[in-house]
Amino acid sequence: MSGNTESETDLDAEPFDGDHAYRKVDVDEIADVPSPATHKKEVDEAVGATTFGFNVYEVAPGEEVPWGYHYHPEHEELFYVLEGTLHVKTPDGEYEVGADEAFFVPAGAPNFAYADDERVRFVAVGAPKEFDQAVIRETCPECGEATGRDYEVLEEGDEVVYVLHCAECGAEAKRFASGP
């Protein structure tokens, strides 16, 4: 034997005995959550992950992800594109991230992602999950100031709707619900 290979008798010891909380899910069966994208599946919530976020997005042409130009003060993100080309705007310029490419966003780094003229499917992974809070900063369509956003969650019929408001003047800036 060489390196860190365990002997067969070591495999009988903890943590190799006992029950574990393994989970398998069909991502297509996970309910959509409110998002400006066509579909957002919170896989991390479906499996009970507690230390990282893992979302699968489907974004139609012209749609954005997630809620606007934002950053996470203490949370890193990694986007892995499955299909199409994801466009990511940053203060350093715009990046095009194609299928089988990954894009890393450090904590505190502003970004805004969208689909241009083709459908995009991608995975967004973020950690630490407990610091997922985003700071949104965009120009308000009403007052014209670059401000943050407050939001409220409304129930309209059978649908949950998120409404974003300008933190300065209170005007409605965006409204979205769960996928189609």
From TrEMBL:
Phylogenetic lineage: Archaea, Methanobacteriati, Methanobacteriota, Stenosarchaea group, Halobacteria
Keywords: Metal-binding
Domain called Cupin type-2: residue spans: 56-125
GO molecular function annotation: metal ion binding
The protein's name: Cupin domain-containing protein
Organism: Halospeciosus flavus
One of the Pfam families matching this protein, by short name: Cupin_2
Taxonomic superkingdom: Archaea
